[in-house]
Specification:
Elements (H helix, E strand, L loop, with lengths): L4 E6 L1 E14 L6 E14 H10 L3 E7 L4 H11 L3 E5 L1 E13 L2 E14 L4 H10 L2 E5 L9 H7 L6 E4 L13 E2 L3 H10 L5 E2 L2 E2 L2 H12 L3 E5 L4 E6 L2 E6 L11 H14 L4 H17 L25 H9 L5 E6 L6 H11 L4 E7 L1 H8 L8 H9 L6 E5 L5 H7 L3 E5 L8 H8 L3 E5 L7 H10 L10
Parallel strand pairs: 1-4, 1-8, 2-6, 4-5, 8-9, 9-10, 16-17, 16-19, 17-18, 19-20
Antiparallel strand pairs: 2-3, 6-7, 11-12, 13-14, 14-15
Keywords: Carbohydrate metabolism, Kinase, Multifunctional enzyme, Nucleotidyltransferase, Transferase
Protein name: Bifunctional heptose 7-phosphate kinase/heptose 1-phosphate adenyltransferase
InterPro entries: Archaeal_FAD_synthase, Cyt_trans-like, PfkB_dom, Ribokinase-like, Rossmann-like_a/b/a_fold
Length: about 475
């Protein structure tokens, strides 16, 4: 099966993260002193989008202005690991975005370079590339690519295969693009710039109304307004659909918009409708944030591995480090959680009170089948994980294979391992793993009368008599 061909057209940046620790302030001002522990550079803007698409298995070509300076050459080298680069002329020095970070938080951001406007555009080359692509992603970062007349002329004939990720300093999409993906602030500003009000009844219009109005103003086939942790609002034809995030995602949101746009573009290219593409994009963007965002790119395995975290998930070691950075003890528990019931919820809520973060190690479908029999699980692992992530007390869910979670625990190394029920801790194989790295095992009681097996048995024999009064 041939790989999906995507052409990413846009503005590139060089992202630098300066990471360190802070334990004092300067004597001459109330400013923190950062002791630097590492400096990491990686492609941003359209460069990040290209790497994300390559990590998803696509055949990627990046068309972008790239400066002829050391940072521009570094950008090219990093992207060419995974994608073909067609450089355009670049006005000024490479645009850089430097974040100074400590403990998973950004203290200050410094932007430099630019303006990055295209100075030479080989129109025939661009036309040949976009004509042959399954999908074109326009990644606008305000450098001037979307305002270039030659590029707009080459994008207009293929607008039906274009996903446009806009920027407040960029130009609006060419008419007829398949999907535009502004965030709420960008969408409101674009409506105002277009001479249309973004107000509703007695206040600002909701994202759903903004999406519908902007889709009409821009002349897009579909438009998705991304609303951060809430999800996305898709205006497609005469209706608006809401795609919620699959549970809470606490982490670095930097790059989530790129993750969203790339996932939507590839899903459309592979035959999905707009609604399905946006739903997948929301799931992937949530996973990206949960896995640590662009900061996690610096810890991916191997110098030539383009796939960033977010879809397949981060390593257990990286997950533990990220959660511990929030403060408090790392708590873990495990089980099948085939039909989530009140006993499960009570146990999870109590487990969360034992520390600062709670990770659930979830038996895979094969593991549940081996433990419970051929008729189980009732719900696939992806569905069970989604239900668990929707609980406010659960910070992350990790699916494992095998009869017990000992191997996963050896890598996660939680401070506390929680089990629910009447166990003899001496018989738990995972006890020795947890205690071996200095952790402890805590037992919590089950809620009487609550078990998945009992619920399934009752459902096979009819409703409970004490519930008949509720009918």
């Amino acid at each position: 099966m041939s790989r999906t061909r995507i052409v990413v057209v846009g503005d590139v940046l060089l992202d630098r993260d300066v990471e360190g620790t802070v334990d004092r302030v300067t004597p001459d001002a109330p400013a923190p002193v950062l002791d630097v522990t590492g400096v990491h550079a990686s492609p941003g803007g359209a460069g990040l989008a290209a790497l994300l698409a390559a990590g998803d298995g696509a055949d990627v070509t990046l068309v972008a202005p790239i400066a002829n300076d050391p940072d521009g050459r570094l950008l090219t080298e990093q992207v060419e690991v995974a994608a073909q680069v067609v450089p355009l002329g670049h006005a000024g020095r490479t645009r850089t975005k430097m974040r100074v970070r400590s403990g998973g938080h950004t203290l200050v951001r410094l932007d430099d370079g630019g303006p990055g406007t295209p100075t030479t555009v080989p129109g025939d080359v661009v036309a040949e590339l976009v004509d042959a692509a399954d999908v074109v992603l326009v990644s606008d970062y305000g450098g001037g690519v979307t305002r270039d007349a030659e590029l707009r002329a080459r994008l207009t004939p293929v607008a039906g295969r274009v996903v446009w990720d806009p920027h407040p300093r960029g130009a609006p999409p060419v008419p007829g693009v398949r999907l535009a993906t502004p965030n709420v602030a960008e969408a409101r500003a674009a409506l105002e710039a277009h001479g249309r009000h973004a107000d509703g009844c007695g206040g600002p219009a909701g994202p759903e109304r903004v999406a519908a109005r902007l889709r009409s103003a821009w002349g897009c086939a579909a438009l998705a307004v991304t609303a951060g942790a809430a999800g996305a609002y898709l205006a497609d034809g005469g209706q608006v659909r809401f795609a919620p995030t699959p549970g809470r995602a606490d982490g670095d949101p930097c790059g989530a918009g790129d993750r969203f746009a790339v996932s939507a573009a590839l899903a459309l290219a592979r035959g999905a409708g707009a609604a399905e593409a946006v739903e997948q994009a929301v799931v992937d963007a949530t996973g990206w944030v949960r896995a640590g965002g662009t900061a996690a790119l610096h810890h991916r395995p191997g110098p030539g591995t383009p796939r960033p975290p977010g879809r397949a998930g981060e390593s257990l070691e990286a997950l533990a480090a990220r959660l511990r950075a929030r403060g408090g003890r790392l708590v873990a528990t495990g089980g099948c959680f085939d039909l989530l019931h009140a006993g499960h919820v009570a146990m999870l809520q109590t487990a969360r009170t034992l520390g600062g973060s709670l990770v659930v190690l979830l038996n895979s479908d094969a593991s549940v089948r081996a433990l419970k029999g051929p008729d189980r699980p009732v719900q696939h692992a992806a569905d069970r994980a989604r239900v668990l992530r929707a609980l406010g007390c659960v910070d992350e869910v990790v699916v494992f294979d095998g009869p017990d979670p000992a191997a996963a625990l050896a890598r996660l190394r939680p401070d506390v391992w929680v089990k629910g029920g009447d166990y003899d801790t001496s018989a738990l194989p995972e006890r020795f793993v947890v205690e071996g790295h200095g952790g402890s095992v805590v037992l919590l009681p089950y809620v009487p009368g609550q078990s998945t097996t009992a619920i399934l048995a009752r459902s096979a024999t009819g409703p409970r008599p004490d519930l008949e009064v509720l009918r």
